[in-house]
Amino acid sequence: MPKFYLNIAVDTPLHRIFDYLPIAHSNRDTYAIGQRVIVSFGRQQKTGVILAISSETTLSNKQLKPISELLDNKPLLCEQDIALYKWASDYYHHPIGEVFAQALPKQVRSTKSPTVTLATLYSLSKEGDDLHESDLKRSPRQAALWKQLQQFNNPVASDVFAELGWDWRSPLKSMVEKSWVTVSQEHVAATHQIQSPSFTPNPAQQTAIDAIAHAQDCFQTFLLDGVTGSGKTEVYLQTIQKIITTGKQVLILLPEITLTPQLAKRFKQRLAAQMVISHSGLNDTQRAQAWLRLKEGFASILLGTRSAVFTPMKNPGLIILDEEHDSSFKQQEGFRYSARDIAIMRARNYGIPIVLGTATPSLESLYNVQTQRFTQLVLTERTAGASQPDIRLIDCRNQQLNNHLSKPLIKAITKTLERGEQVILFVNRRGFAPVMMCHGCGWVGQCRRCDSRMVVHKHINLLRCHHCGDEHAIPTNCPDCQQPELFPLGLGTQRIEETLSTLFPHTPITRIDRDSTRRKDAMQTVIDKVHEGDAQILVGTQMLAKGHHFPNVTLVGMADIDAGLFSCDFRASERMAQLITQVSGRAGREQKAGRVLIQTHHPDHPLLNTLIQRGYSNFAADALSERQQAQLPPYHYQALLRVNAIDENDILSFLNEVMQLITPSSQQDINVLGPVPAPMLKRAGRFRYQILFESAQRKPLHQFLRTILPAIEKLKTARRIRWSIDIDPVDLY
Ligand code: ADP
Ligand code: ZN
Ligand code: ZN
Fold this sequence. Notes:
This protein is of the alpha/beta class. The protein folds into five domains: 5-109, GIY-YIG endonuclease, CATH 3.40.1440.60; 119-186, no CATH class; 203-379, P-loop containing nucleotide triphosphate hydrolases (Rossmann fold, 3-Layer(aba) Sandwich); 390-433 and 490-627, Rossmann fold, CATH 3.40.50.300; 637-727, CATH 3.30.70.600. It is built from 21 helices and 30 strands. The strands form seven sheets. Strands 11-12-10-13-14-9-15 form a seven-stranded parallel beta sheet, with helices on both faces. Strands 16-26-25-17-24-23 form a six-stranded parallel beta sheet, sandwiched between helices. Strands 2-1-4-3-5 form a five-stranded antiparallel beta sheet. Adenosine-5'-diphosphate binds next to helix 9.
């Protein structure tokens, strides 16, 4: 019998592929690339994926072990998916086994032959529908189920009963036995009624829709650059409709917090197709099912967040990535991939178009437009007669502030509320105040484990570190000088909320930040409340800036943006400009005109002035030429080596060895910046250092990394520290 070996990507942090023997007496035909296996690895059993079958190995017979189990009869992954994951492993210099683990949902990773489970659906029969509530008086549980089912025209899955909070199975069974409820199997074809829009696309929208449709069946990247409220979502909807009628699938990626049930509903109402959703709020089964449904072709549309970018498509037609500038598309730990860049690579492999939508394009994408890698489609006007908001600065220098709010801002809020309209007040920080200070000696509350200050959370009487989560009670006396004169310094959302509730005691105030929306569905409750109410104030962090459409908001105030103007991160000004533009975009989305008031102590700051007088696109053009002069991304390429350890000396000896590996010949065309302590030297009890590698070209940088990273992996000193490499880092902290 000819001998053969299985080359397997095993879920471990090692940068290599492992050879295993097949199961004893099994045939070569049994195995195929893309099947998953279980192998013994050290003392553990781990999942792996067959990447190749070869007739040679460098290992001796004694070193070789057979695989423990074959999980798939048919390959779970096709060659094209595997090629993408291999590319990602190569490009991000991340262990291939971990890339596979990331790409597969948890429940798919190690289950044997996972399959789509079609749901059982329930609906009221004619008889059931004719019942009256009084007929069910004596069985309150059946009455409750009956009420639930009455709300729907179509058969529904049992999920709708989950919120009842009790076991619905036996009362439902009785209702089925009495023929009040009909049971059916989920159909794969769409059954629901779709709504058509009451308007036709405007010329700019139509041009965009046509351009994307024209690119069907070939790879092209579109940057759909449209101001907030210009009808980008409408362009997506109409384009998707065109694609799915040809029988193809669409993958739509969104930042986590913009994927709200409302948006999903809007898509569902408009599109005649099976749609599945995938985000971190779902359980493992739901995510695995969404993944399988797209892969097997049971669904035509997947609406998902970052990690959905890896979902295989049976019949790919289009990829859409909304809010492309959003930094949440970059994973910031472990496998540090950019979902945007992977999505583009996927579209290219599949030979299909991809649309990147945003009101505030990233500088990377604008550069790609300049170099003609992307095609720009512009929507300059807001739809349906809405106009762009009027943005003004409030010069706060020498002004008397009422708890951080200026007189003109308070007056504008009062007027807006009097008209029955809503106000958004944007504050960059959650909590009550960013720091607690002693009036006697200047002591400030520092985190023991991080180089950062503890944020004051007054309502729960805690000082809490937003970096490591450490917390303790607010001291009554200063720990240094024992004086009882501690005061909160600066402002956070809770402080502004408190100030506003004394200024406007009869107006409902809603706070939207990570603290107030921690509970599941909390965000949805808040959004519903805003839509129902008349005069209201919304106080919130950047969570408010994204995607939401609140038609009755006509005033947006920004209380403190100054801190963001003076960051040492070269990307800070881009982010600040995007944030201001996005938050401003919440004002006046329909007929009522919108106003934006920005409080600042730096009314002459160039960023603010360019942005307000000449708009985001001119700001971005200026920022790009600054980047070019400074030799920064997107003109240059970067990779960041991060190191952390409890003992600073371990880091220093490791870095010393790393620097010795870098010889003049290995670093041709590469600049090595560092090693230096990270801007936040200590975090969660660990010291942090970094080295930045950069180059005018991508190729030599990656070539350099390919030689140096395996050498770093072998260093003895590497065992005492943790290190990682971040390709195209978006955050140098
Ligand atoms: P964006 O995604 O750019 O923020 P949306 O697509 O959500 O914008 O559109 C904003 C609002 O305008 C929505 O209520 C949408 O239904 C409506 N709309 C979109 N296109 C048109 C149009 N051509 N005419 C009238 N209303 C439109
Ligand atoms: Zn003191
Ligand atoms: Zn901390």
